[in-house]
Design goal:
single chain, 258 residues, alpha/beta, 6-stranded mixed beta sheet, 7 helices, 6 strands, globular
Length: 258
């Protein structure tokens, strides 16, 4: 069984701490802006954050998804304050094997909900997915990989479908900026020694308050118990075991999701 990690020992690559930081008013927008701006080079403003949102499939028979962070950039200069760009930010500690097709599926379900009936296609906002990974997805030792659709026979032509995929490798050494490298190091190892610029120091103060919050500590324990209960139920249903056998299996093999 994977050893339970206490909140104070967590890094931002840990799903629970990342989620809590994106649900907290003090840390959510500053952290989202930092990730977006340092990964893309864009200057963003007027962000609206939605954290850990469930998006159902098109029917009950189809796979739904859980978005870790969806950030919408709003252009308030427009008469109706339109969304011009949507960022899906996803830390991922799992295997890279299914990630490209997982990303494709995520983007398809997001797109379906961005365009209202009767709206022209040019109104569809840009959609950028930003994956933060502890393993090198393409083996190039780069901290930043950018993926776009291209016209294979004429790659110099821009195929502007509004979709861009960014893969950030926390240990990458090549490409990117010093600011991005600092951020990725902090996300991978969230400690005061890695808060090396003023924005990261401000963020770290907020993260420390989260780590020391009694309320969040209680929520973490409840989430762990819910995860264990769900695992027990799955084991009993899949293998037809009794509660005692399921408990023994969990004690030996269960992996803490956080």
């Amino acid at each position: 069984m994977k050893t339970r990690k206490g909140i104070k020992d967590m890094d931002l690559m840990d799903d629970f701490l990342f989620g809590e930081s994106m649900m907290n008013e003090e840390t959510a927008i500053p952290m989202a802006k930092m990730i977006i701006e340092r990964a893309t080079g864009l200057k963003v403003r007027n962000l609206e954050i939605t954290c850990q949102k469930m998006v159902n499939g098109l029917d009950t028979d189809y796979h739904g998804i859980r978005l870790d962070v969806s950030a919408s950039e709003i252009d308030i200069r427009e008469k109706n304050a339109e969304t011009v760009r949507v960022y899906d930010i996803e830390p991922n500690n799992g295997s890279m094997k299914e990630l490209p097709r997982r990303d494709r599926y995520y983007q398809s379900l997001i797109d379906v909900r961005l365009l209202e009936a009767g709206t022209d296609y040019y109104k569809l906002p840009e959609l950028w997915s930003i994956w933060i990974l502890p393993n090198d997805p393409f083996g190039g030792n780069r901290m930043l990989y950018t993926v776009k659709n291209v016209v294979e026979e004429m790659p110099e032509i821009e195929y502007n479908d509004g979709i861009k995929k960014i893969f950030l490798y926390t240990d990458g050494e090549i490409g990117g900026s010093r600011a991005l490298k600092n951020l990725l190091r902090y996300i991978r190892d969230t400690c005061v020694e890695n808060a090396v610029d003023s924005d990261l120091q401000t963020l770290h103060s907020g993260i420390e308050r989260l780590k020391n919050s009694r309320e969040i500590g209680v929520r973490y324990m409840l989430e762990l118990e819910k995860a264990k209960e769900a695992a027990r139920t799955r084991i009993m249903e899949k293998y037809g075991t009794d509660l005692k056998s399921a408990e023994e299996y969990i004690a030996k093999y269960w992996r803490n999701p956080y």
